[in-house]
Predict the structure.
Amino acid sequence: MNRRTLPIISVVVLCTMALCMSLAGRKVSAQDASAPSPSIYNPYPPGILPPDLNSELARVLREVDFIESEAIGQWHALKPPVLMGNPPILQGTGVASVEILGKLMNFDKNISPNKNRACSSCHMPYAAFSGPIPSVNLTMIAYPGSLPFRAGKRTAQRYTYSSYFPPLQYNATQGLFFGGNFWDSRATGYLTRSPAGEQSQFPPVDPLEMGNPDTACITYKLSLAAYRPLFEEVWGKGSFAISFPSNTASICATPGGAAVFGGSATPVALSPDDRTKSNNVYLHWAQSLSAYEHGLSLSPFTSKFDAFLAGKYTLTAAESAGYNLFRGKGNCNSCHLDGRSTAPAPTALGAVDTGVAADTTPVFTCFGSANLGLPKNPRVALLYESTPDSFGFTPNPGGFTYTDFGLGTFLRGGFGSAPNPNSSWTQFAPTTDGQMETMTVRDVAMVPPQCTGGTDAPGPYFQKEFFHNGYIKSLKQMVHFYNTRDVFRFEVESGHCPAGTVEKVNCWPAAEVPQNQDMTVGNLGLTDTEENQIVTFMKTLTDGFTTPYPDINTYTGTCMTGGNASTQGNSTLLSAEELRAGAGAR
Amino acid sequence: MNGFLVRVVVTAAAMMLCSTSMAAQTNPYTATAELPPATKAAHLHITKGPALELANSNSAIIRWTSNNPGGTDEHFGVVTYGTDPKNLNEIAKSHIRLNRNHPYTVFRVRVDGLQPRTTYYYTVDSMEGNGARDRVKSPVRYFTTR
């Protein structure tokens, strides 16, 4: 191939890819999300589902397919495997192989019963692997599962740096839990020793997400996947030497929770030996996805702040002021640890930091949990799923009465969480009610590059959702909440702030879980300008500054414009009182 | 096609196709062991307050500032209160996370379940995550609910 041919081929390849994405978009017509259909579960009152839901789900699916095809190419570009040593290691290609395998799994829609949801359907690169649909982030919070429109109760957490969380453990000296994955830390990593890996084992069999009825279904679908050879290369020949019964395909095309399963968690009838093999395949699923999340294509430490720590970037005046507030008056780094200064640092504006960087790759979390006292978000989809769907499954029999106690519910092994593998932890449930995992600040501001205004109005911006229930819609609101939660707190529900106040500006509705609220924050005394400076600093934690962030250019939707960050999303507020009454009436 | 456009396209194509090699790089992260609790302050004393930050009909927030007590990062502000200044028989605790880089700590405690239009007397203290009290010296103060 001569030097002139390569660019021409590259152009053709790129144009073909773009054309495919464009044409694929025309095959799927947008429907009204509320249109009745026997295969559709829609228990929602008007206004909960966004009107563009179907077209947006189709848009994301096209993007998912595009990245999957890219990953196939990356797999095929790997050098031939050379297995050496004992324990055996794929010399030279092992790391890339397992990471690409994880990527192939992550963007594989065929894993879901209806072949319409990949892991990435709720976790796309341009949103730092969190929710990719602006209108969903603005309204129903949780993403529709493989059976539309079953949906969960919480926002999709970013993958970035999730692999750095240690296995969940109670620290008796500190009197607090550290580690785990998920908002409620239920992916403890107690067996896998990788909470991020264990996290990846939940959504495929969560009836409100992918909804496979049995983990063996994932094994079965992996055995049929185009990338099965790579799986066997990484995890061993014979991994899929399992005798699946003839009805496996039929079982695995039926959403979990269906009455036909009679409550069984293992409807695929496997021999004990085959069940063990299947469980091992599912363990390797977890390990592969965790490898992808830990890799430099996903958690790369390439932000402005990383360049700053390396002495290769000078923070601007606003960024520097924001950083001083972040670790000073705002007190953000009491838990979002920034790795700086082991000695007391000056906190006054203009003071000189004489401390040293104690950690050159801080992940901006203490790995703990806290109840920040967020208001209940009446838009959360789960609150309305109190009637059975066409498969006889009722996601939330309690309807609007459901309260999200987070870590406390998990420690009790309560509804909507997972079994607690350590009975000695249960005693701490009352003091952890309402606690949610402290996420890294890294990449909180990551958006598609064409949305040049970032996350906040007036934009052009990409609408994200923040905290576990998505009540907060912009970074400005987030900082304002930390700053004024206890200054403007009213004992009202969302949608019912007193006359003369504006919700999220000078009215914060009551906490969903009032007990155990963290009081490190709530009245920080920050000015409006200081809030904005902290937002500016948070943007320095977005990866892709020193090296382009892989797959960030895959967003084919639109950016939003107009309004202001303080009241962003307020036009979609609904009356909790009316919604509750409506939920009870159905 | 001009040379610049060719370079842009080639660069874009390389970026899309090269994440394999990027993924194979060594991760720079080095796990840091969890730090032991900080050294306890030699002389813990209140520098501001305690005072009422906010009160409504059935709850209040008490606030004070002390030098950083040290010990466990996970800390609690503790308010001991009652309607009789000689018999403070109720306790409220709120979680605070110390900032090791700060010479001071602002403690804030929510006191719930109060009666309307009632005067309460209180003292304050702080304690470590494992329940050990810091034993800061506090005056008795009072507030009245709305």
